[in-house]
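We now fix the convention by which a protein and its fold are recorded. The integers have meaning only within a learned vocabulary of local backbone shapes. A record is reproduced here so that you can trace the correspondence yourselves:
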Amino acid sequence: MFGEDFSETFAPVARLDTIRLLFVLFALKDWKFYQLDVKSVFLNGYLQKEIYIEQLRGFDVKGQEEKVYLLKKAFYGLKQAPRTWYSKIDEHLHKLGFVKSLSEATLYVKGTNANLIIVSIYVDDLLVTESDKTLIEEFKAEMLNEFKMTDLGLMSYFLE
């Protein structure tokens, strides 16, 4: 029996109009835009449902070829992998006090005008802008501590 989302693929990608709005915001406010790249993004999530896979050819256990593996974590190629990553980052951002936008599932905000930090998830990248430089350094340190990431620094280009 397949899980209810077996045929679904879900990847957390900010809408292009949201990214454009953020670019306008940081240009008007003279804020900086930073980029963090998550390494092995789809290996970060834990599966919420039981998923079994057959033994791979060449890696089967002799005498136990009829057995299957119960997956505990997501991996590349698994349709549920993007969803598990999104669930994990969503949970962590909420734990840090971020509030998710009601209209954009990949947009998170924390603070107020003077101490505002905005995070947008774009598949395996986090795009971050802020009103106070100390917030960004604290955020980066927290994220680098929790996830394997590369701090790409100031954003210099964006591919749609």
Summary: The domain at 16-45+78-154 is CATH 3.30.70 (Alpha-Beta Plaits). The two ends are 37 Å apart (CA to CA). Residues 140 and 151 are 8 Å apart (CA to CA).
